[in-house]
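User: Reviewer 2 asked us to show a designed sequence for the structure in our supplementary figure. I'm pasting the structure tokens here. Could you produce the per-position amino acids so we can include them in the response letter?
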């Protein structure tokens, strides 16, 4: 059992200096930041104490990968790792083949801890760096991470971690897609009882996103490419403080691919199965009038979902037809959306009142409009959310 008092080592001059800084801190923020430094040093001592205790335990040596003989201890060797608490140092036994086979030295404790050979930064630091890089440029993410870990992090390091994490994610996804084609369904994400009976909404569209013209180089003109995006969510209800019941999306999931609709189809189906499309009491597919998206719907989702044309595209068809119903843009089949009894003279938009197709860019409306409650396609909120992402 670890003794906290042993870890504090209050006779350590460095710790004395940190404790004095805490005592002398004039303001509350200065007090908290000074105490945070003490906590960081204390955490390092605790982690190092645990590692030292584990390193003293007897080592079970694996066989030599070349000759099969048991490896032999060559004594303790130092190891260092940058962690969220600061640099962690420990000693652990390393072994080599007793017959002299040319193999890298083996450290069973490192393997037990999940530490890779030559790894210099701990996984939790890399994970935080990757998460920050999702929302901020690499240089900003590196700066923020340096503030969190108390060290210096280079933007290049964050970039490399993101590349490695992306590679692992791609391999994992590839394995899951392979398994799905062979009939092995993925495990469904657990849902609360309330969400399990809520309708599952699936939407898809294409969005233009900026790319660097050359990978790894910020110079040059921005290159815009289309990304295929799918969104999945459960449609729940929420009662506001005034007692009004409003729709609310839960369990939002996003699928995106830099590729064609075939690539999106496989990924979206994988995620749809994971989100319970095979057991949801009601499934709704929502998209704009793009022919390819409706082919995708017919091929993969029509057996499980009801298709709904995006509100503004339905409105466009209705406006053109002058009747009370809208049809698929490319299909002479039955009507798919029934709107109000008569179309209003002007359609509400965020930019004011106007008519679809007359002086208003329909694509912009479909992407950013919020629909009109009276015409009941509230699920169209799913698409703007995807665009904001
Ligand atoms: Zn050997």
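Assistant: Here is a per-position design you can include in the supplement:
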């Amino acid at each position: 059992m670890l003794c906290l008092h042993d870890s504090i080592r209050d006779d350590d001059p460095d710790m004395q200096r940190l404790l004095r800084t805490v005592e002398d801190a004039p303001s509350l923020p200065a007090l908290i930041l000074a105490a945070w430094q003490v906590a960081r040093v204390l955490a390092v001592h605790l982690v190092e104490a645990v590692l030292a205790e584990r390193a003293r335990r007897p080592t079970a040596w694996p066989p030599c990968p070349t000759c099969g003989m048991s490896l032999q201890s060559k004594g303790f060797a130092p190891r260092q790792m940058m962690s969220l608490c600061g640099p962690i140092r420990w000693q652990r036994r390393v072994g080599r083949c007793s017959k002299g086979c040319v193999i890298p030295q083996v450290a069973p404790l490192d393997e037990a801890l999940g530490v890779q050979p030559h790894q210099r930064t701990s996984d939790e630091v890399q994970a935080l760096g990757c998460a920050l890089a999702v929302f901020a440029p690499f240089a900003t993410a590196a700066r923020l991470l340096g503030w969190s870990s108390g060290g210096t992090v280079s933007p290049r390091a964050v970039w490399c971690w993101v590349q490695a994490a992306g590679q692992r994610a791609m391999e994992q996804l590839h394995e899951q897609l392979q398994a799905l084609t062979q009939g092995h369904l993925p495990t469904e994400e657990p849902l609360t009882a309330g969400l399990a009976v809520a309708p599952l909404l699936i939407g898809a569209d294409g969005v233009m996103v900026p790319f660097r013209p050359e990978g790894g180089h910020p110079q040059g003109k921005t290159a815009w490419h289309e990304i295929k995006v799918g969104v999945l969510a459960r449609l729940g209800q929420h009662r506001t403080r005034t007692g009004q019941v409003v729709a609310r999306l839960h369990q939002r999931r996003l699928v995106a691919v830099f590729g064609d609709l075939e690539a999106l189809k496989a990924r979206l189906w994988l995620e749809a199965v994971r989100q319970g499309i095979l057991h949801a009491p009601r499934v709704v597919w929502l998209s704009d009038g793009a022919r390819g998206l409706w082919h995708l719907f017919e091929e993969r989702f029509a057996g499980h979902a009801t298709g709904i044309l995006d509100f503004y595209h339905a409105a466009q068809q209705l406006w053109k037809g002058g009747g009370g119903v809208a049809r698929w843009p490319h299909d002479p089949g039955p009507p798919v959306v029934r709107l109000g009894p008569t179309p209003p003279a002007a359609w509400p938009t965020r930019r004011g009142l106007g008519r679809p197709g007359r002086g208003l860019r329909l694509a912009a409306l479909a992407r950013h409009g919020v629909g009109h409650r009276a015409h009941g396609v509230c699920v169209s909120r799913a698409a703007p959310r995807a665009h904001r992402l």
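For the response letter, you might also mention the following. The pocket of zinc ion is lined by residues 64, 66-67, 69, 97, 99, 101 (CB under 6 Å). The two ends are 48 Å apart (CA to CA).
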